[in-house]
Amino acid sequence: MAESTQIKVAVSGVLGRMGSTVLAAVAGDPAMVAVGGADPAAATDTVANPQSGEQLPLRASLGELIEDAEPDVVVDFSNATGAMATFTACAPVGVSVVSGSTGLSESDLEETGKLASQHSVGIISASNFALGAVLLGYLAGIASKYFDYADLIESHHEAKVDAPSGTALSIAQAMVDGRGGRFTQNEAEKQTLSGTRGGDFEGINVHSARMPGRVARHEVVFGGTGQTLTMIHDSINRDSFMPGVLLAVKRVVTQDGLVVGLDRVLGLDELKP
User: What number does CATH give the domain 7-125+239-270?
Assistant: First the structure.
């Protein structure tokens, strides 16, 4: 990281809804300074700082932006392909990355871990930066050992490309880990509409909804004799992700290697019973 007391942050995908929200959050944090953005849709060479109005460098190529702006950290919210391109562009030149892109495969993460270790840079990859959503996964993992049946319902905006969400899969995995194995599952003798019971994740029925008006909602329902336990987290707007993003930016400049999941940034993995 540079000697400046402020962390220099650039945003990949800065013209998108998440990218513009990240730029505003970074510009408003006294520990950071926004130094520019990259976006394939760039039609000009500057983007306004949402706080000061200052014109910052905007490039269609992340590589060009890194050369011009010399960031300490790049924040990326794109997709699996975009995230891998960001990791590949940043790690060899010593730039850390905080990525909220979902859809990364195990082989993608393995390759990313090798990149981070080889170049001694920090990379944080998380499926969700909302602190409450991460806590939902942690608490659901604790509750899972006490129930045999569980459903997971997630809802997102209509433009989300993957289903179920990466967060839903992370929560489901935490539930299976907490239980220590597969859940019991009802198997309908007759489905009059195919797929009604949802996807099967180790006995957890996972359901996805996509509609305008939603940002992100995750609901876990446990069933037991004479009772149900429901846990819900709602992200009302994209600002809900910003405290987690800023926390990750401050953490990533102090580490070498890959960290997967905001729960590890928060230390929740060390608190599991």
Answer: 3.40.50.720
